[in-house]
Amino acid sequence: MTHFLGIDSSTTATKALLMDAGGTVVGVASSEYTYETPQPLWTEQHPDLWWQGTVDSIRQVLAQTQVQPTDIKGVGLTGQMHGLVLLDAAGEVLRPALLWNDQRTGAECDQIRALVGRERFIQITGNDALTGFTAPKILWVRNHEPEIFDQVRQILLPKDYVRFRLTGGYASDRAGGSGTILFDLASRDWSSEVLEALDIPSEWLPKTYEGTEITGALSAEAAQATGLRAGTPVFGGGGDQETGATGNGAVVEGVVSLNLGTSGVVFAAVDRPIVEPEGRLHAFCHAAPGKWHLMGVMLSAAGSLRWYRDTVAPGTDFETLLAPAAEVTPGSEGLLFLPYLTGERTPHPDPLARGAFVGLTVRHTQPHMARAVLEGVAFGLRDSFELMKEAGLGEINQVRITGGGARSPLWRQILADVFDAELVTVNTTEGSAYGAALLAATGAGIFPDIESACAATIRVTGSTAPGPAKQVYQEVYPLYRDLYPALRPSFNAIARAVA
User: Fold this and answer.
1) Quick one: average pLDDT of 214-226?
2) What is the pTM (predicted TM-score) of this model?
3) Which of 140, 141, 173 lies closest to 440, judged by CA?
4) Could you say which DSSP state residue 99 is in?
5) Which residue has the higher pLDDT, 375 or 343?
6) Cα separation of 450 and 433, whole Å?
7) CA 490 to CA 300: how far, in whole Å?
8) Cis (ω within 30 of 0) for the bond into 38?
9) For burial by CB atoms within 10 Å, which of 65, 251, 301, 438 has the most?
């Protein structure tokens, strides 16, 4: 029987997912690992951890399912985005990878803006130069570790290091490549203008492929390590956000993916490259061939609710915490919450932004505060929707929600009301690894295209329509939007005072 394997190399674990040709998940296994923080704001990880996690997870899922290696017709790859892997001429790792959440490169971001010009850089890549991306990490190594930089002959992303270990060749997908901010977004390949301005040799970067294209075949050495069959095709795949959206069907315009986890990610597929002029939204290539996407990121989404629970009602389960909040009238009787507990990225790329309750009176109780947290996160996520519409996104027909926050019926209703859009849950819960497997199956010819693959395998399991409260939220949302500009000077002053 035909099967496909999705490999997800995340920041804390590698997951291996086996899917049959009909899209049914038959087995999942994962192997955990940690990352290092050698200095404040630095995060690093050795690439060998991803490879060993890949080997262990594949062997676990094969043993668990008893699927024969000859029945696996393709492997799709996904994983954490933006990390920097540096190899020498022999393909040996030169230093631990700098990860997506490493924050050391502020000066290098300024350097990129100066070398290319901020407006021109956003126009080419679809993004401003931010510390999380790959390009400033390359410049940081050149500026601070010249003895390492002099030995560099290949630059890879984390997922593509796993690809290298599987196939022995260098390749990347176009979704991941665009996340380096070294890409020409419109042409879906490396930007010669940016590379020349930053003095990064183009030969250090791998050839890029669409998510459904074959990038290589499993080597004999990798087959022996993993238990898979030598010669098994390895497909392009994509970054974890793009394959996660693929895994819940957000591959056509009008269907938006919302991941309500610790952070919140709003992801909208588009048929053409759209760039928010100020770079307040991320714009990348989609893992779906010939498509792009806009993405807004809130740093403390469900994380805001966890903070509130752990601070105000430690030990309380979320269902108990939120039950009385459902009895509070929409708008929380004038109480507003700013969810900037760890700074913010969209729409305010401001690490100094802070969380706040505004409008407290003696009438307000814990249930009011709990509901205000849910509403504040919903308003903050709506900011991304508004930016997308201003940038040129068409009508939003449906929002597909995943993540831990999606389990709350109250929160789903608030979100539907604030967005004034249908909010749905779907049957697929394995996200990125499932999307990677779907891309492999499509590339192998099981489905004619990724849109058909999603239509055949992903179905709606629940729906929440906007209710009467949407009128209240239309009036409250502008009040929320006014808070950040008003409080920003105070946020800056607070940061100076406690520095």
Assistant:
1) 98
2) 0.92
3) 173
4) P
5) 375
6) 15
7) 20
8) no
9) 438
pLDDT at 499 over 80: no
Q: Is the CB of residue 456 less than 8 Å from the CB of residue 23?
A: yes
**Tens digit of each residue's pLDDT (9 = 90 or more) over 54-103:** 999 999 999 999 999 999 999 999 999 999 999 999 999 999 999 998 88
Interatomic CA distance for residues 248 and 265, integer angstroms: 13
3-state SS assignment for residue 279: coil
Report yes or no: 183 and 125 within 8 Å, Cβ to Cβ.
Answer: yes
Distance CA 191, CA 140 (A): 20
Neighbours of 417 (CB within 10 A): 24
Per-residue pLDDT of 343-355, as tens digits, reads 898 999 888 899 9
Phi-psi region at 64: left, alpha or beta (left = phi > 0; alpha = psi -120 to 50): alpha
Q: What is the model's pLDDT at position 397? A: 86
| 3 state SS of 192 | helix
Per-residue 3-state assignment (H helix, E strand, C coil) for 318-343: HHHHHCHHHHCCCCHHHCEEECCECE
- Is 230's pLDDT higher than 80? yes
Average pLDDT over residues 433-458: 97
CB crowding 75-87: b at 16 or more within 10 Å, else e? bbbbbbbbbbbbb
Choosing from 240, 310, 317, 417, the catalytic residue is: 240
248 contacts 400 by C-beta, under 8 angstroms: yes
Dist. CA 473–CA 477, nearest whole Å: 6
**Helix, strand or coil for residue 227?**
coil
Tell me the pairing of strands 233-235 and 154-156: unpaired
Task: Say if residues 269 and 248 touch (Cβ distance below 8 Å).
Answer: no
Q: Is 240 a catalytic residue?
A: yes
Three-state SS for 408? coil
- Provide the token pair at 77: 């790859």
- Host H or E run for residue 292: strand 292-298
Strands 3-9 and 13-20: antiparallel
Residue 455 DSSP label: H
pLDDT tens track for 178-215: 999 999 999 999 999 999 999 999 999 999 999 999 99
Nearest to 348 by CA among 384, 302, 313: 384
Nearest to 232 by CA among 34, 123, 72, 84: 72
**Secondary structure percentages of the chain, helix, strand, coil, to 5:** 40, 20, 35
